[in-house]
Amino acid sequence: MKREVWQGLLDRCLDFIEGWRRRWPAFEPDPTVDVSVDRLAAALDALFQRLSDTYPFFHPLYAGQMLKPPHPVAILAYFTALHMNPNNHALDGGPATSYLEKEAVAELAALLGWTTHLGHLTGGGTIANLEALWVARETHPDRWIAFSEHAHYTHRRACELLRVPYVVVDIDERGRMDLNHLEALLRRHPIGTVVATVGTTGLGAIDPVHEILALQTRYGFRIHADAAYGGFFSLLAQRTPPEVEPAPFQALPLCDSVVIDPHKHGLQPYGCGCVLFRDPTVGRFYKHDSPYTYFTSPELHLGEISLECSRPGAAAAALWATLQCFPLRPYDGLGSILARTRMAALEAYRRFQASDAFRPVVEPELDIVTFFMADEFRASRISAATERIFETAMRDDTAPVYLSKLRLDAAWLKRRFPDLVLDQPEVTVLRSALMKPEHATAVPQIWDRLQAVAEQ
Ligand SMILES: *Cc1c(COP(=O)(O)O)cnc(C)c1O
Fold it and tell me: CB under 8 Å, gap of 24 or more: what pairs does 20-28 form?
């Protein structure tokens, strides 16, 4: 966004804040909070210096981790609401922003095809998943939790924290939960909840939620879908023809709980995850009796259905305002953005497939692409080549390319590439999260740089 546009909109926000404040009698700020402009400027200058070390997450040549800038509308909405600093724990703390949160969360539930829900925003995917697994434990106090080897590492941690026994399900050759192994585990253990990952953080693989659902009728367990990264791709599953495999997304309405992170693919700054429960009566588990909140209304306060107490109302304002500009629709708004990131991943994959220099690990299901050097066969040499490419690609004065690395089980990779020599148990490959719509046009440039680095 151009600087003049930023300035115009910032003025608009400041005008609003000033007008809002003027509704109450003026007062003098206490001298203890007074700081000279020079000192403020110096503090900011010192900060700028420290911040300048940050990788260029905003840039299309940054194709490493799942990082992208929040949209300006989210920043402006957050900035504005921050002046009020509402707390969405209670309607007493965030009267306006609690309603914004309820509306935004209802839109996320509708995106997933849910007709009923109970849910709220969270600090992120980790706390949202923890909450879902906590409800799972309260529902089935004596039963276990199952998740795949490639599920987010925090599921294991959450189970440890909750002291729930867990089992880890193998992955198939595409990185998805292996249902034969899941069924064997279901026969052996009292599993009460299966976690299906819709878009694994490493490979971007989608567990077959629809097939897990088929096992549910036989073994009776809850399904929690961790769609922190992949959930927004429901929009592309709704296109005709669908631009991602639709079946797992079509099964989401039948899951018991879902986590979706607006700070992953919803253009939000960090601090915005979301957990949804299909059965609103799980609200009973949250019952607590706080002596100092919930006075202004008999209506539902979000703190009554949330593990966390204080939560930023500004995050709800940012998400709500973003959804005004980028509605959750398959052919415009957020759908158009995701279609571009998906296009980027497919184009990168096509190039890796046709290339002599690289081999793609799996066909991308969403917008993460993983690959390794084609002229190496030993796990140790592939890993060394990965380190070299990773380092060299980002060391360039004019057009550095930033990638990330992913450690995989070497025996698993050998199932896909039988010529692999297992001289060590793990192998490190390159990973690229093409999460920005600009990646759709940046792929050729990223590609040229990778080719050049590979030839060195
Ligand atoms: C990112 C991610 C998480 C963790 O979410 P945070 O917001 O980083 O706490 C959990 N699960 C999946 C699949 C993720 O991609």
Answer: 20/84
Mean pLDDT by 10 residues, the chain (456 residues): 97 98 97 97 98 96 96 98 96 94 98 95 98 97 98 98 98 98 98 98 98 96 98 98 98 98 98 96 83 69 90 98 98 98 98 96 98 96 98 93 98 97 98 98 96 92
Distance 229 CA to ligand 1 centre (A): 7
Q: Is the CB of 228 under 6 A from ligand 1?
A: yes
Q: For the whole model, what pTM was predicted?
A: 0.97
Does the beta carbon of 364 sit less than 6 angstroms from any atom of ligand 1? no
Place of tokens 């490979």: 203
Phi, psi angle pair for 448, to nearest 5°: -60, -40
Residues 339 and 438 both lie in one domain: yes
Cβ(370) – ligand 1 distance below 6 Å: no
Domain boundary residue, one of 268, 303, 325:
325
Q: State which of 298, 325, 352 marks the end of a domain.
A: 325
Where in the sequence is the domain holding 347, given as residue range(s)? 334-455
Using a 10 angstrom Cβ sphere, with 0-12 exposed, 13-18 middle and 19 or more buried, the burial of residue 69 is middle
Q: CB-based burial of residue 259 (10 Å sphere; 0-12 exposed, 13-18 middle, 19+ buried)?
A: buried
- Residues 259, 199 within the same domain: yes
The DSSP secondary-structure symbol of 23 reads T
Q: Render 384-407 in DSSP notation, one character per residue.
A: HHHHHHHHHHH--SS---B-EEEE
How many alpha carbons lie under 13 Å from residue 104 in its C-beta half-sphere?
Answer: 32
Distance between alpha carbon 395 and the CA centroid of its chain, in Å? 28
User: Which CATH number goes with the domain that contains 352?
Assistant: 3.90.1150.10
Strand partners, 24: none
Assess if residue 416 is contained within a domain.
yes
Q: What is the DSSP letter of 450?
A: H
